[in-house]
Amino acid sequence: MAARRAVSSLLSRCLYASPKTLSPSLLPKERAHGSAAGILQRFSTVAAVEDPIAPSVLVNHTKLLINGQFVDAASGKTFPTLDPRTGEVIAHVAEGDAEDINLAVNAARKAFDEGPWPRMTAYERSRILLRFADLIDKHNDELATLETWDNGKPYEQAAGIEVPMVSRLMRYYAGWTDKIHGLIVPADGPHHVQVLHEPIGVVGQIIPWNFPLLMFAWKVGPALACGNTIVLKSAEQTPLTALYVAKLLHEAGLPDGVLNVVSGFGPTAGAALASHMDVDKIAFTGSTETGKMIQELAARSNLKSVTLELGGKSPFIIMDDANVDHAVELAHFALFFNQGQCCCAGSRTFVHERVYDEFVEKSKARALKRVVGDPFKKGVEQGPQIDGEQFNKILRYIRLGIDSGATLTAGGERAGSKGFYIQPTIFSDVKDDMTIAQDEIFGPVQSILKFKDLNEVIKRANDSRFGLAAGVFTNNLNTANTLMRALRVGTVWINCFDIFDAAIPFGGYKMSGVGREKGIDSLKNYLQVKAVVSPLRNPAWL
Amino acid sequence: MAENGNGSLKQGFKIPEINYTKLFINGEFVDAASGKEFETRDPRTGDVIANIAEADKGDVDLAVKAAREAFDHGPWPRMSGYERGRTLYKFADLIEQHIEELAALDGIDAGKLFEFGKAVDIPGSVRMLRYYASLADKIHGETLKMTGEYQGYTLKEPIGVVGVIIPWNFPSMMFFLKVSPALAAGCTVVVKPAEQTPLSALFYASLAKEAGIPDGALNVVPGFGPTAGAALSSHMDVDNISFTGSGETGRVIMEVAAKSNLKTVSLELGGKSPLIIFDDANLDMAAGLASAAVFFNKGEICVAGSRVYVQEGIYDEFVKKLITVAENWVVGDPFDPKVNMGPQIDKVQFERVLKYIEYGKRDGATLLTGGKPCSGNGYYVEPTIFADVKEDMKIAQDEIFGPVMSLMKFKTIEEAIERANCTKYGLAAGILTNDINTVNRVSRSVRAGTIWVNCYFAFDADAPFGGYKMSGFGRDQGMDAMQKYLQVKSVITPLYNSPWL
Q1: Which residues of A form the catalytic set?
Q2: Mean pLDDT, range B157-169, rounded to an integer
């Protein structure tokens, strides 16, 4: 309990991001270093990457998990999963394609149609999920190590925040299992009407690489709580932790076939899952481009229902009453957290003209102090980007930003000479029509834009094809209330950012997606609604 | 019947050592301020099990003060719902480690079946606690649809200090029926267990402390109704009182709540629940269910199906089967696994049951079976069935709280509904038929808080439970129970330039 409290306070301290209370472990020790020497010294930490810290964990699970068994791909093929610190191979992983997806869906279908999972009591299902949560806690550090190795995110973030959030989410969903209620609805005539919320069936889930375990929890938690069976395709960049926790889930008592994990690529395994005729639902988190394809495949096959959690270009709006130091810290965190690889990254920083200059200056200083280096090293804030493709894409966007006339205020280059590290980068004087203000970059590139008044910033903030999240920084209640309703986004964080409680629904407006994850709303994604109507003879009341 | 009332005591069973006999206030076991004690007895023999510290007004004051302090300044309502839930889960795990001992405590203190306690009462209590542990982070207020340019929302806040007064028939279940949702909501609690059965409640207090429930958040003060119970109900610093017990006491509690600080009240009181058996019912199932509905737990259960209405087409055959089942109902030591029914709780109840049996005979009902005490020591009564009972007889009107069934014949569905509702109570009802139209109609027509169709006693943590009419108000169990322990606060602020309303 004490350990848990420490974790939760670490989490809230980090995510509320009040500069005075930020967790020291997630901040640079040399806060005072704003000088060029300090910068050099800091970037020199990247030199440590030349000799990356060896992770203290074994990779035990590299095969597909189908019907409770670890098996090779039917084709026998494997693909390498790489260490983003070096680009070197961590392990070769079985590569699922259409045939393996077929086997996995068959197993899930059988487990749903005939197996014990949807037929046991909700209390029994909750007990299995609770045991799973305890096992995650028990293996917290191993899971975090594996996550950092495969993904490149700071180990302290994985071990102190993300893995504990996975067990927390599992406990949350365990609690819903026996509280899934339909309504008894009033009828216009003499009829008795019950609404049953039934599990939807076999669920396909495709998750991204930026938060491999958390995305696993967001997807698997509600689907299992509702009594469904699952085929999950992990991202090809980060297949390791999904296999590890899936094994723990079986240890906790999950029946065979209820959760199948197929590692593989989108065009093969992902497409096969999205277009499978025996899959009743597909849930996807990833890019908008891929989300469109998934919806299309679902439409062309069996009209399976779809939830999509896609990209964003989320505004972070700093009003003129803001405490600039606090705003700088929060805006910095909103963008740079997780190497900028967050769908809800606050990537358009709108700053009121009265505080703009001070804000840009201080943001620059903060970015220059950001500690980039081996994510296993204590005190490191930013690790490498996930892979070469993302790394090159981000550098391309930085070039586009410079070419379009934005002011490069900080960073702009790769960091070090090995792996996929990029300097914390800030563009100021960014205009709405620049590509860097429109596209999701998914990297450590902050765009700062200037605004004059509230109506203007509402209009500009909403002038995006995305609508995932927004940050609002003001102490003015009326301004906060106006922005809260005017912004067409799924989450508005007021004077905070990236608060991701289990109970808070998350999802997008517009091209940021369809449906909501987490919270009670997430259960709807995984339930069919059945109305049962029968006549009433001589009812005592209607 | 005499051979059923074997009454033999299981000498082999080791009675657990009684470790907790003091009041539990602010995280400590303490003597009563007065130094007084009372005896708790084994209903199998009437022997004293232990002397228990006897709380009265002064002790209740101390307990409420501790609960008040824990609520106003302590960590319990200030930690996250998740953390409260985790603490309650730990509490549940600790209880699970002591199932046998706790079932034995309820066995010796309440005369309850030991095997049943191990299989149902204690695991059911654990299950209840886990249900609410996981509800602690699922208490939702709502954002509102205001008529004007306003932003409105509701906060569901813990109500504060909750007083809990529980009966002796299910000492463990009743404890967790009330305490689990109150703690999950973030309230602090003062529990007065029944003077007949203080042992398991004190054990639970010690486990709560071990689980990490902060001092003062849960206090247990054994004592008597007129002293401790009255002090709790009339206390100016108690925000809610939740009571399960008799109708008479319920009235008193509501009255003192009204006279003191208008604290909110919920009452789960007596019943005289009908079990309606239609012509198409399976007779074996019907005989089994009807017997269980009234003889289970010695008839000491508020939802006992004590009025059995049988449709005329099957009446005669049903009665034959029923008598066979009743006569095979084994009365004896509750620690004997073969036994179906132990002794009544105490001398008062024992004599009350026998008195009602006399009323039945006097008023002209036909005694089909039973009607006598069983031989031997202790408070054993034979399973008793009266036929030809009329609604105006005392045995058909009053809650007897013993193994006494009133059997009645009916002709039509309309008649069954009318007679089933002919009671001042409205706690539960059973319906036995496979006719969907009959089920739908009777379910809506009988004015009772729970309807069991082709089953009985199907309690569930998720199924709300409570009474209509003089069976009380408010609901235990399910999400509804949380509402008793929550205040609703509306927060409203003007909106400027909202793009939608």
Answers
A1: 309, 343
A2: 97
Q: Looking at the complex, does the CB of residue B178 fall below 8 Å from at least one CB of chain A?
A: no
Q: Nearest-CA neighbor of B186 among B227, B236, B125, B239?
A: B239
Q: Are A163 and A213 in contact (CB under 8 A)?
A: yes
Out of B54, B268, B300, B382, which one is annotated catalytic?
A: B268
Residues of chain B found within 8 Å of residue A481, distances taken between Cβ atoms:
151, 493-496, 498
* CB A383, CB A82: distance < 8 Å: no
Within 8 A of A540 by CB-CB distance, chain B residues are: 417, 441, 444-445
The SS3 call for residue B136 is: coil
Residue B5: what pLDDT? 40
Tell me, yes or no, if B87 comes closer than 8 A to chain A by beta carbon: yes
pLDDT of B36 higher than 50: yes
Q: Are A233 and A208 in contact (CB under 8 A)?
A: no
A471's enclosing H/E stretch is strand A469-473
B83–A contact, CB cutoff 8 A:
yes
Residue ranges, chain A, pLDDT below 50: 1-49
What is the value of ipTM here, to two decimals? 0.86
pLDDT tens digits for B240-252? Answer: 999 999 999 999 9
CA B140 centroid distance within chain: 27
Name the minimum distance, in Å, from the CA of A371 to any CA of chain B. 32
Q: What is the pLDDT of residue A8?
A: 40
Whether residue B428 contacts residue B294, with contact meaning beta carbons closer than 8 Å, is answered with: no
Is A540 near chain B, with CB under 8 Å?
A: yes
Q: Residue A56, class by beta-carbon neighbours within 10 Å (0-12 exposed, 13-18 middle, 19+ buried)?
A: exposed
Q: Is B494 on the interface with A (CB under 8 A)?
A: yes
Interface subset of B 468-487, CB within 8 angstroms of A = 479
Q: How far is CA A517 from CA A74, A226, B434, in A?
A: 33, 14, 42
How confident is the model at residue A55, as a pLDDT? 95
A534/B436 Cβ within 8 A: yes
Contact A481 B496 (CB under 8 A): yes
Distance CA A541, CA B155 (A): 33
Between A and B, how many residue pairs show a Cβ–Cβ distance under 8 A?
96
User: Which pLDDT value is given to residue A427?
Assistant: 98
pLDDT per position as a tens digit, B165-194? 999 999 999 999 999 999 999 999 999 999
In this prediction, residues B47-67 reach a mean pLDDT of 97
For residue B373, pLDDT over 70 is answered with: yes
